[in-house]
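Repro:
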Amino acid sequence: MELFFANQLLFGEEILNRLHIFAGPWLDTVMATITATGNEIFYLLVIPVLYWCYDKKFASRIGGAFLTCVLVNESVKEYFNNPRPDPSRLSDGISQLNIRYKPKHSPGFPSGHAQNAVAFWGSLAYFAGKRNITLFSLIFILLVSYSRLYLAVHFLGDVLGGLVIGCVFLLLYIVSVAWIKKKYAFINQTAIVIAAFVAPFVLSKIMPGNEVVKTLGALSGFIIGIIYENDRIGFSPKNRPIPNIIKAFAGIVGVIAIKAGVKAILPSVASADFFRYWLIGIWITLIAPLLFTKISSLNGIPADTRD
């Protein structure tokens, strides 16, 4: 891989200088806004709202794609540990963007924004099955990817690598979902729940990187919550606008309370981060829906039984 990372076209600052569009501060703001849609907080808002207010199965599939892809991305980053662009080798103006927006402790290859955009928007387009959504998703994936080059926080090779790995992952994920759909009825649910907790927890002790630990926790709680909610609660998300707004607001307040409040209580160790993000995952797919079912006006129409 040394020759690969030594390629100046893929991993050189000069190509970033050439790819940059010098159009003034307004474009800086636009690109920073677009790149923000690839941050954790964006997905922590959108995926739960889809689950609580639109379609559980649809949101579960997209959330599963995103969380699993994040795990893959963080693991690959930790393995290669390749640096990001050096601001001292960038043109004036671009170097300031790099300094302002570049994560301080995250390796560069592959780009998480590019890879996770493929997983999120790609799965959304596939499971929605609508041409206009597919077109929008494709455009947005490209915009998010270019925003990372514009802000000079990734090399061209980082972004291309993220797109390729994201596409391979998405294909494998779609195949896996189809397989699970056929085999799920024959699998013991208790065994799935135990595996969904034990496997991520053990992996969190083995795999390097604090972000990996958080993702494993969120994925574990997310999956366990889906299983129990589907089997024992039967929450129906579709509702009128006002109840949906109430659900979204109350649910997001819960996510923020767990993310910030539990962090203030627990010690700063990996196991605590695993538990905190596990709580966020199970809050989204089980606890919040359970609370919503206790208020008849928030429970919506009868549960959707479509595939």
